[in-house]
Amino acid sequence: MRDYTIAAVVSALKVLDTIGEYPGMTLGALARQCGLNKSHTYRILKTLEAQGYVLQDGDKFFLHQRAFLLGQQAKRQWGLARVAKPYLDELAAITRENVHLVVREGLCSVVVDLRESPHPIRMYASIGRKGPLHAGGTPKVLLAHAPAEVLEELLKKPLQAFTNATITNPKHLTKLLAQIRRDGYHVAVGDLDEGAFSVAAPIFGVRGEVIAAVSVAGPIMRFNKEIEQRFIGLVMESAQKISRALRGEIETVAQV
């Protein structure tokens, strides 16, 4: 099969993605992170800056207006975010906690949409935030439903401990993933972010595969057994509604 990729475009997109994930990096840091030399990285940055995608502030680089507008257009056009919108809004309004829409990207989890809690004390969250697959609510739901080779690849290296509650034993993790598949949801407490909880459930695509996960998350100080059971029901209901809407079984009202 012929390779139609253009190396310069691939490098430019890598630089753009890196700035999005790590805003405020310097030229040298960007070059190292992207695996490019400084001269090539500089030319890419100047091209992106001239087109309005990157802003240089001192010696640091940030995404600029064109990147923001492109992201907004992608959000309107991308089926999952568009379909999920009213159900994420509804779940956030009822629970008054953070609501996350998360997908798997290789061996990472990525937040693709969120609703922030109105409470002054809440979890840190940002669209585009990448995380592990073996810790947290939505990551473990995604891992539980991922192809077997994903778990095999993940277990080739030691599992990183983020808190004392992080599961780092492969056998214990494998057992928990099977439990998540049986239950249809997962409750994570303090295994990724200290002092935080997450209640997550899978979202199924048109072919029956898990394409994303939705969660309600917040500080443990606002979490107890009664709220846990309530949130499990709400999150599972929201995930089921999004799954059905993606299959066209119910009409979605999301237009933006």
Task: Please tell me about this protein's structure.
This protein is of the alpha+beta class. The chain folds into 2 domains: 7-69, Orthogonal Bundle (Arc Repressor Mutant, subunit A); 78-246, Beta-Lactamase (2-Layer Sandwich). The chain has 9 helices and 9 strands. It has helices spanning 7-21, 27-34, 38-50, 65-77, 79-95, 137-144, 148-154, 170-183, 225-246, and strands at 25-26, 54-57, 60-63, 98-105, 108-115, 130-131, 186-189, 196-204, 210-219. Strands 6-5-4-9-8-7 form a 6-stranded antiparallel sheet, sandwiched between helices. It is globular and about 55 Å long. The two termini are 39 Å apart. The relative contact order is 0.11. The mean pLDDT is 90.
CATH top level of the largest domain is Alpha Beta
Report the biggest beta sheet as strand number plus sense, adding barrel if it closes.
6 strands, antiparallel
Overall strand count: 9
What is the CATH architecture descriptor of the largest domain? 2-Layer Sandwich
Looking at how many chains there are and whether they match, the oligomeric state comes to single chain
State the fourth-level CATH superfamily of the largest domain. Answer: GAF domain
Per DSSP, the total helix count is 9
Domain unit count? 2
Fraction in helix: 40-55%
End-to-end span in angstroms? Answer: 39 Å
* Strand arrangement, major sheet: 6-5-4-9-8-7
Strand content bin? 15-25%
Order of helices and strands: HEHHEEHHEEEHHHEEEH
